[in-house]
Amino acid sequence: MSDPTRIKSNIASMIDQGATEAEIETYIASENTTAKDLRGGRMSADDEALYTALAQDPRSTADSLQGFARSRGFDVTDADAQAFIAARDRNPDVGGSVLYEPAEAPAVPEGPSEELKAQPNTAFQTVSATAGEFMDGLIPGSSKFLAGSGGALGNTIGAGLGMTDWHPGQAYDEGAADSERDQSRLEADHPNIASAAGWAGFGSSFLLPAAKVFQGGKLLAGVGNGALNGVLYGVGTGALNDTGEGRLANAVNGGALGGVLGGVAPVAARKLGDTISTARRNIPGLNGVLTAAANLPRRALGQPLIPATAAAQAQAERIINREMRDATIATGGGTRTIPATPASVATEVNRRGALYVPSMPADVSEPLRDTAAWALQGKGTMAARSRGVLADRQAQTGPRIRRHITDELGPTIDPIAEVEAIRARASAASEPGYRAAYAQPVVVTPEMARIMQTPAFRDAVPQAVRNIRNAQRDPRALGFALDPDGNIGGVETLSTEGFDQVIRAMRDNGQAAMNTSGFRPVDTTNSVHINSRARDLRGALSSQNQAYADVTANYADEMALREGLERGADVGKLSGPEIEAQRRAMPQPAQESWMVGARTALADMATKASLRPTANVAQAVRSPLGLSGAGVLSSPGDAAKQTAIETMSGRPGVLRSLDDRLGAEDDAFRTFAAVDRAGRSGGGLEETAGHLGTMVDVARKVATGRPFSALATAALRGNPKGTLRFRRDVQDHTAAILTASSPREVQRAMGALSSRPVTDQAKSGALYQRAGKLAAIGTIQAAGQSTDPVAWEEPDTDSLEAPYSFEEELRAPMYRRAR
């Protein structure tokens, strides 16, 4: 039997030597036996009978079958022989007539192409053909189009110069044909150069320009640009392809394909990007792998490496921005509400800092406070540092609020010293008024005579004389009648100043008659009557001496100052009308003394409240002032009390300023409390509810027989906060942003938040652009493929004698045995 391998080798050599197709056919015809074997020859009838008998003989082996076939010029493979013996062992009836199947003839290389030039390319033709291969790799069919267009243009120019007849169509075809022949010769003579040029062109297709009609990094813009570029490149490349139904049909089909691919590619890229982002957040270790992979080219190029926490930092910024979308800021003591944006948060934090309240972004809005409470449950370095910052700030609340009180309401120094200072100022200011009042004579009215008969008056006269003598003055000069021994003989001749001294002594006695056994002196029946008679006497004296009425109305004595101090200390117990009534009954210096008592009491309340580490010190001060409560349940407060206090202080609007500071302190406390509460509850209700929802979803999918879906939900849940180490890094960066305190830190943190959407949109736009570019390149390659139909050749089955089974058969290269 002729060797098929030898025949194929000989044919290939003949082709290399330039043999014609007729010569090759003549050679094949000379190999009659081989040609017959290659095309499905058969054994003689006698050989077939012998082969059948051998096959049916249970003593025959695979070796005996193969030996018989080889002696007749046929081959039986080991696998076929063994398969037949195994089938015969299962069924002794296997055998029977011979069933033939044509063998697959070896692929005979085609003869030389009609386009293959007999002569090698010149140097210029080699360069031109290489450029053509590059252009076809860039845009399939472009080299043929350019060559044909060049031929048509040259013909047109030559015809215009009278050098030739004008036949641009023929010139186009000739130029295109010459280009194809040159490239075919290049591929035959220098296949590596042709291949390299083609791949270089394909690589350069990634540098092709892309239209950006729709601006921005949103998905809609990416879909629009992708579809537009796909249509443009699909139509253009299809128009260069003259195969199949022609250029027009290929252009239409290419445009349709490009539009679909270009529109779908950005959406697919978005989905893929979201999946990768979710996976790197929720699959342990994946973030590190992806970051290391991204750093490989950077390390090779000497560029700065991407930090291991970069993805977590970006995710933290997205989470905070998302929380800001619907958040608001109550600013200016709650007088107005503004949207929470990075810029407005930075402005509000700095404004509160100027009020001496150490604020941070977490303080200014409830959603940011909740996010900070979650973040500070992390185990990272920044979360731990931030918890320490909050604890230190809470510990200093008492001293800070004392400062707020003194800044707005006045100093809270020693109240006794402050009252003495008020008295000194009042005395100096009232001296001219008292001089004028004392210069007027006194007419003892019946009302005054009755008061002078009371024990309250008579008991006060000796004290008045002692006070005058202690001041190193003569009581007789003020109208007191004294005998030679200094005993008081009468008071009927008292001057205005003499009566004023007795009134002051009466008030001292009223003070002394109060019950001092408790925490604070309390009026008794005796003290009430004494003070009443003192007021009556002062009123009777004022009714006939206008100067005296004026000076006593505007300036207080020491008793009035002490009363003001004590009543001011009761500010938390007094209502608005009660404070207003006290104010009307007090001269101006006593009102100042009242405010000293009030602000001192408030400052002491702050100090006392701050002794408890988890106390809301701001609220402990707000309530006594009638200011609103804290949080979402706050009310306008006791407006009447606030007005009365401001009137008493003589500083309109002072409580609004103080409340602005106390409100900022209250927000700071609520941040501390939220973090403390979240730490004790293990992350808060929202976090627990999220985990519970995931567990329920996973359990439902397992119960309904969807284990893979359940696994995907558990591993790739769209959890923006991540898991394990990624989650820790997100918490760390979130904590760093929301607890930034210094103006520089706040500005840097809010700047990062502001730039995050811009950065993400730019990255999305680049992703959509790359996806659209890949779709356009795919369209170019698809639209440039040949669409010529391929002829279908029916297999030759004439030599098959009967249907056969593929289950139990004996295979030979040129035939099969049926059962």
How would you describe this protein?
This protein has 819 residues and is mainly alpha-helical. Among the domains are: 96 residues, no CATH class; 74 residues, no CATH class; 89 residues, no CATH class; 181 residues, no CATH class; 104 residues, no CATH class. The chain is built from 34 helices and 7 strands. A 3-stranded antiparallel sheet has the order 1-7-6. The chain is elongated, with a radius of gyration of 54 Å.
* Number of helical elements: 34
Overall helicity: 55-70%
Please state the average pLDDT score: 77
Structural class assignment:
mainly alpha
Largest sheet geometry: 3 strands, antiparallel
Radius of gyration: 54 Å
Shape: elongated
Q: Major sheet: order of its strands?
A: 1-7-6
Quick take:
The chain contains 34 helices and seven strands.
Keyphrases for this structure?
34 helices; 66% helix; 3-stranded antiparallel sheet; 819 residues; mainly alpha
Topology:
Layout: H1 4-16, H2 21-30, H3 32-38, H4 45-56, H5 62-71, H6 78-90, E1 98-100, H7 123-138, H8 142-160, H9 168-189, H10 191-204, H11 219-240, H12 247-282, H13 286-301, H14 310-324, E2 328-331, E3 336-339, H15 342-354, H16 366-375, H17 381-395, H18 397-409, H19 415-438, H20 446-452, H21 455-470, E4 481-482, E5 488-490, H22 496-512, H23 525-544, H24 546-554, H25 558-569, H26 576-585, H27 588-610, H28 617-622, H29 639-649, H30 654-681, H31 685-703, H32 707-716, H33 724-738, H34 743-783, E6 810-811, E7 815-817
Antiparallel strand pairs: 1-7, 2-3, 4-5, 6-7
